[in-house]
Amino acid sequence: MKAFKYLLLAFTLITPIALPTMHAQDKPKGEGKGGMRGGDQLKHMTEQLSLTDDQVAKIKPIVEDERKAMMALRDDTSVAQEDKRGKMREIRQAHASQIRAVLTPEQQAKFDAMGPGPGGKGKGKGKDKAQP
Known about the structure:
Layout: H1 2-26, H2 38-49, H3 53-75, H4 81-100, H5 105-113
């Protein structure tokens, strides 16, 4: 009976430490804080905008380039955190304009209305306050 109590106590103490570690191992590599991974973003855009195969082929390298640029900026320790936000915004805007060039006018309107992220004005932090 004493052994059972010690085992139960050990389990109770180890569980809070082990569970977050086990959960972190389940997360696919490259999936960090916030945002969508490149493939998820393209899949979401394909569904929301009804992209053609030709459009997907043209947008895929743009999305991949944006993801790589964002990761490089995130890993760049020479850039101050407050400067990174502005640079991230510039990267998003540059890639969004490239994506818009591939879309039809109807798709562009949907793209612009999509939430935060490439092309989306969003409804949260990134929204331009000058717009109604």
